[in-house]
Amino acid sequence: MKRGILILFVLLVYSGIPYAQEIYQWRGVDRKGVYPEIPMVSFLEEEPEQVLAIAGFGNGYGAPVVTPEGIFVTGEIGDTALVFRYSLSGELIWQTPFGKDWVATYPGSRSSPTIVGDLLYVCSGLGNLACLEVATGECVWIIDTIHGQPLMHGHAESPLVFDDMVYLVAGGRDTNIVAFDRFQGTVKWIAEGRGERAGYNAPNLIRLPERDILVTFSAYHLLGLDARTGELLWTHEQTNIPIEKRKPGAGDTHSNTIYFDEGFIYYFAGDGNGAVKLRLSPNGDSITQVWRNESIDNFMGGVVRIGSYLYSTTMSGRDLRSLSVETGLESDTLKLGSGALIATGNNLIYYSQKGQLNLVRADQGKMSPDGAFQIHFGTKEHFSHPVIFNGILYLRRGDALRGWKIRKHAPDVGF
After folding, report:
1. Domain residue extents for the chain
2. What confidence score (pLDDT) does residue 251 get?
């Protein structure tokens, strides 16, 4: 029996078949922003106990990624793009530059790293894609020659990894979406998509019995491609801006990662596109619109699902809303300002652009505030998305990061 297991292991290794590894990435498992349920403290009486303070990793908005190996965060210092690794207790382990970063509008990093096994993948605000060793920070390879069309606010993408591939939505006319061998940095396939510039979107993966689909936004189209071949399967156009008026900054910001659940695609966009539910065919080759709610204009705050309800911020209403998965109709509203949203169990963690970190209890579409506290550390806008790992809530603002115990009886940092 032991000999049989050994033979199987050898065959897997030497056949080049990548074995299943946990992926630590933007907004957690499946990029849904929903973290494992924990018994939470309330924010009503006082701010949760702060257990971590880190600073000095540069300008940026990209959320950290936290693993048992440490805290990984991107930053821009003097127009250089960097990745930093800290221990769970906050000691710097290494920092690695990987080219130039975005220093025009809202200067700083936009990417959250993606970590698979002993490798880390990261994208700069200029669209460079790099692979680093987790242990040492040494650069394995870097791609800086596939340039997309100019963007108003820099390239904002957290790399998607699938099997032996890592993807870059370059936004070039001919090199629109590119799949690379994630170990070598060589091109696996190139897709033209619709030839549009990138849409500030972190792509996602849909796993079906018949095929695996890469879903992402370019400037004016939702795209579905065969993740293994790059074949364009379907598109869904954003019709809010007439073709003759389309230009950088006009209706082209689609920063929310696509949400897929139980055979349906949900996307939340601004500029009049609204919230949309699409039915994906069983074989993945077509989509059909089920509903649209144009009042939900969410550019970059994320969306989560709890039970039969979706929860989203809005920009025009400057609030937090719930809406029915079945109908798209709104159920409840909280006037908390625009912000970024994640969830754990029936709890919503909502970081408003006014700098308040809110705890909201969700119950079948109804929302009840359970306290908030003001963020005073760091500089610049309150744009970054919160992260939860092992009972600790992490939040980045500019070149500073904090961690709080939010689980009752959470272990000490650095366990």
Report:
1. 302-382
2. 87
247-254 long-range Cβ contacts below 8 angstroms, 24+ apart: 248/150, 248/151, 248/152, 248/197, 249/152, 249/153, 251/219, 251/220, 252/197, 252/199, 252/200, 252/219, 252/220, 253/153, 253/199, 253/200, 253/299, 253/300, 254/199, 254/200, 254/201, 254/217, 254/222, 254/299
Q: Is the pLDDT of residue 4 over 70?
A: no
Question: What is the structure's pLDDT at 249?
Answer: 86
In angstroms, the CA 399 to CA 394 distance is: 13
Q: Do the Cβ atoms of 273 and 238 come closer than 8 Å?
A: yes
Identify the pLDDT of residue 371. 96
- Please state, in angstroms and rounded to a whole number, the distance separating the CA atoms of residues 143 and 139: 11
Residue 2: φ, ψ to 5°: -60, -35
DSSP 8-state class, residue 407: B
CB-based contact 251:238 (threshold 8 Å): yes
Q: What is the pLDDT of residues 219-246, one digit of tens each?
A: 999 999 999 999 999 999 998 888 998 8
pLDDT band at 122 (very low <50, low <70, confident <90, very high): very high
Place of tokens 């991107």: 74
- Is pLDDT above 70 for 57? yes
368 alpha carbon, distance to own chain's centre: 26
Could you tell me how far CA 37 lies from the centroid of its own chain?
20
Minimal CA–CA distance to 27: which of 114, 117, 129, 124?
A: 114
Residue 120 bridge partners (DSSP): 115, 132
The CATH fold of domain 302-382 = Thrombin, subunit H (2.40.10)
In eight-state DSSP terms, residue 27 is T
Please state the pTM of the whole predicted model. 0.93
